[in-house]
Amino acid sequence: MNMQQSLSVNAFGIGCFAAITATLIAVTFVLTKTPIEENVRRHKTAALYEIITTDKFDNDLFADTIELPGTEFGYSQNISAHVATTAGRVTTIIFPVLSSQGYSGDISLLVGINADSSIAGVRVITHTETPGLGDKLELKKSPWLLSFNGLKKVAQQPWAVKKDGGQFDQFTGATITPRAVVNAVGKSLDYFHKHRRQLLDRSAGNRAKNTGDISNGN
Ligand SMILES: Cc1cc2nc3c(=O)[nH]c(=O)nc-3n(C[C@H](O)[C@H](O)[C@H](O)COP(=O)(O)O)c2cc1C
Question: Where in the chain are the domains?
Fold first, then answer.
């Protein structure tokens, strides 16, 4: 075999290897995409019922949603917030929130806010923070997330981690992750404050308006 033929054989071999690898990656992606999405969906449902336990509402949280401008919550597209009611009165709204300020990627959360503007609960749905450093935002690793429960935003207690002069603990050697979560929850509270009246109003006319144009204060 001369040099030319040897090069051709090698090139063919590398080409075949690349094609097989690419096919395997594509097949793995297709096969795992649905289970991963299903897993996230299941995790989100469980988190929702942790934030608001079933004795605190009498409606269907998945049927009773309100479409809101996603850009207010870190998303590029509109989001569906879950509305919990008792005898027709809104008790809690649970917002899907995305923070892009994580140390190693986006952090997706559910933030529940009660009608009186206090936090019902916060849960992290997905994150890629560093194990042992930033992953204390998982309840199975640390109770840190529970420190939001029942809080309202008040001027005397800055809504920030302690390192930034606020009330929330940072993690040992990791301030970026908790700062990201504190900021995202704080922004959700700001949105709730600004639109509280419309968000709590269950009248049919206003519910119809509670889509994109709520961000204009309508
Ligand atoms: C390999 C590596 C991984 C890290 N992972 C995180 C993390 O997941 N979350 C975090 O807040 N900080 C993480 N840190 C620490 C940050 O770089 C930073 O030092 C820390 O959050 C303190 O931030 P501050 O200077 O704003 O207080 C990591 C550092 C290293 C070297």
Answer: 1-51, 53-216
